């Protein structure tokens, strides 16, 4: 059976690598890291983060941003770019055939933390009535639907760091089922907060490398954890027939996806990568491709010892040693629920441009990983079939197959 291809007709990106697709792609291809000392974290045990650079909502004409959490603001800006890229005008569409599926792992945590401090310091009478409309996990999806008049299914999956990939997978299924003609899909996150940074630091998950510029170093023998980031990635998905009827050429196609649970531990991956193997095997089967046909993997590649070892073994065993692997987290840091959508977008751009971004900061590949990790420079390569891996706390795994 020919796999169902969800055409990626638009991409919007707001990440530490830049605002907009051109800036993102240039920085990721250059392997230029975004990690830096963060003055807002001065009193915390880890002071490094990956922030969206020079982000001021009013500079982008985002009306209503004062009533949105930062994660929603990122989403609205990315969605606006994605729709423009797809040459879609909400004034012209049938909103009942437009779905929104936008995931997040943390939601409006900045709002919730701020209002909790207000509750403790000043009492309940000073808590903002906008706390829940700004802070809930579904509000980015809700605001996008409101802002663009999308009246189809509106969903907000939460699968931790796999949330954005879950959203894209669900979006493809909605198209395949005929429940929508257009899906605005992706993920957003703004988790650089005292609570999140302190919690990850206590778990020893964050890098404490003395040089922020080289702190996020996936697959490197000296890696010591990830750098927390923020941002949003939004893809416009359509059926191939719908895109063709509009005369739009897709960037790439999502032709398969697989999901699984480790059923093992809340934070640590299964030591043999059982859940990752199940998800990747399911994605390959859904796409109707063999592992050896996959030319490129945008790895989850968190820069943690456990993930990188486990994921490398899964890639080697299921895809073979010829698959060209990269982790763009060396540039962006770990964007949690947004990372999966951002990395799916980077994978689509890799397929489109035939250029694999390098894994930034990788100087000494850990012995025994036995995978072809692209580093030092971007690698020109014809990539017909690629995979984007995303694995989340709770052992929740999603793999996407993206093709030309």
Automatic annotation (TrEMBL):
GO terms for molecular function: 3-oxoacyl-[acyl-carrier-protein] synthase activity. The keyword Transferase applies. Keywords: Transferase. Residues 3-404 form the Ketosynthase family 3 (KS3) domain. GO terms for biological process: fatty acid biosynthetic process. SMART domains: PKS_KS. It holds the Pfam family ketoacyl-synt. InterPro entries: Beta-ketoacyl_synthase, Ketoacyl_synth_AS, Ketoacyl_synth_C, Ketoacyl_synth_N, PKS_Beta-ketoAc_synthase_dom, Thiolase-like. The keyword Transferase applies. PANTHER family: BETA KETOACYL-ACYL CARRIER PROTEIN SYNTHASE, POLYKETIDE SYNTHASE-RELATED. Belongs to the thiolase-like superfamily. Beta-ketoacyl-ACP synthases family. This is 3-oxoacyl-ACP synthase. It comes from Actinophytocola xanthii.
């Amino acid at each position: 059976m020919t796999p169902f291809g969800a055409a990626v007709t638009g991409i919007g990106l707001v990440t530490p690598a830049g605002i907009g697709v051109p800036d993102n792609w240039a920085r990721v291809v250059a392997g230029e890291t975004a990690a830096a000392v963060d003055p807002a974290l001065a009193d915390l045990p880890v002071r490094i983060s990956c922030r969206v650079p020079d982000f001021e909502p009013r500079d982008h004409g985002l009306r209503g941003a004062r009533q949105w959490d930062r994660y929603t603001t990122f989403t609205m800006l990315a969605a606006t770019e994605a729709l423009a890229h797809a040459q879609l005008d909400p004034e012209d569409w049938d909103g009942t055939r437009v779905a929104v599926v936008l995931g997040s792992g943390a939601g409006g945590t900045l709002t919730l933390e701020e209002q909790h401090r207000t509750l403790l310091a000043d009492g309940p009478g000073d808590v903002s009535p906008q706390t829940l409309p700004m802070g809930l996990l579904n509000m980015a999806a809700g605001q996008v639907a409101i802002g663009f008049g999308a009246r189809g299914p509106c969903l907000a999956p939460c699968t931790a760091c796999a949330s954005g990939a879950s959203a894209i997978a669900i979006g493809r299924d909605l198209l395949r089922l005929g429940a929508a003609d257009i899906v605005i899909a992706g993920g957003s996150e703004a988790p650089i907060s005292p609570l999140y940074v302190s919690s990850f630091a206590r778990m020893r998950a964050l890098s404490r490398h003395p040089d922020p510029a080289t702190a996020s170093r996936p697959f490197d023998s000296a890696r010591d954890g990830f750098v927390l980031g923020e941002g949003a990635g939004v893809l416009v998905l359509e059926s191939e027939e719908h895109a063709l009827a509009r005369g739009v050429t897709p960037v790439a196609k999502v032709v398969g996806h697989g999901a699984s649970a480790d059923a093992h531990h809340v934070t640590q991956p299964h030591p043999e990568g059982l859940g990752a193997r199940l998800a990747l095997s399911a994605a390959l089967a859904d796409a109707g491709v063999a592992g050896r046909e996959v030319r490129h993997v945008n790895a989850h590649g968190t820069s943690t010892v456990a993930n990188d070892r486990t994921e490398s073994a899964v890639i080697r065993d299921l895809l073979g040693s010829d698959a060209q692997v990269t982790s763009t987290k060396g540039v962006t840091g770990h964007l949690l629920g947004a990372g999966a959508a951002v990395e799916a977008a980077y994978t689509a751009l890799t397929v489109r441009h035939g250029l694999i971004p390098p894994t930034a900061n990788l100087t000494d590949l850990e012995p025994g990983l036995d995978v072809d990790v692209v580093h030092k420079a971007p690698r020109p390569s014809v990539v017909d079939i690629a995979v984007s891996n995303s694995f989340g706390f709770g052992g929740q795994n999603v793999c996407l197959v993206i093709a030309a």
